[in-house]
Amino acid sequence: MILAFECDAENVAMCAPDDVSVLFEFHPIFESIPWLTRTHFLIVLAALLAIGLMYFGLRKRRLVPGKFQLVAESAFNFVDQGIAKDVIGKGGERYTPYLLSIFLFILFGNMFEVTPLVNFPVTSRMAIPAFLAIVTWFIFVIAGIAKQGLGYFGHLLWPPGVPVGLKPLVGIIEFISTIFVRPFSLAVRLFANLVAGHVMLSLLLGTAGIFVWGFIQGDLGFGKALTGGAWFILGVGIFVFEILVAFLQAYIFTLLSAVYIQTSVHPEH
């Protein structure tokens, strides 16, 4: 995208707005439905895809699974065995539904970044990772209180095994880290990675298209066309890499959620 401070629609691809806040506004898809924006639609779609995968994949289970059932079972076993039970340990299966839900929702939401004609990961909106992080925060705090009672907070303030002289300092650090830093870092990690990938793809592929199209129209020289071609090749490489990032970020968010729950329900570890 090319921005100009003085709007000249014939020579630039996009004019800089007078108020940059319009770049962050939610615009409705249909004027008659003002509350339905592209972001809201994709959030609902990601949730429906996650629900649909598990419902239609597991509702009629066969001894010899079909492709759809195989994908659903693989996703369930990956989260149940590889995250919930391996990380949380005893009682980890209780948290499988939640961990599976956020894993699939984040994965589908991330994959919108590399979906043709969409190219927008809903997790690049800070509100989405922040909401998921707050839900995880509530779960591991409530799980800690249910397991340890109000002594859960005492455990944070006075960690066992720490020398008495260091307990006040370490306790304050642990309390702030657990109660405030964990949800913030959990949300920012997902948000920042998806925003970075989305911006890189938009700049590389968008600029490549503009340069090549400008050469075809005769407005730009051959050197610009070569530059556009090189950026396109780099953009394709980033595109493939972002598919891996989409999966990794869904996995990392789910894994860390399980780790935080584990520290609440099994403080002795």
Descriptive tags:
269 residues, mainly alpha, two-stranded parallel ribbon, two-stranded antiparallel ribbon, globular, disordered N terminus
Provide structural commentary.
The protein has 269 residues and is mainly alpha-helical. The chain has one domain (3-265). It has helices at 38-58, 67-88, 96-111, 127-148, 151-157, 167-216, 222-265, and strands at 3-4, 14-15, 28-30, 33-37. The strands form two sheets. It has a two-stranded parallel sheet. The chain has a two-stranded antiparallel sheet with strand order 3-4. It starts with a strand and ends with a helix.
Layout of helices and strands:
Layout: E1 3-4, E2 14-15, E3 28-30, E4 33-37, H1 38-58, H2 67-88, H3 96-111, H4 127-148, H5 151-157, H6 167-216, H7 222-265
Give the gist of this structure.
This protein has about 270 residues and is mainly alpha-helical.
How many extended strands? 4
- Element order, helices and strands? EEEEHHHHHHH
Taken together, the total number of domains comes to 1
Rounded Rg: 23 Å
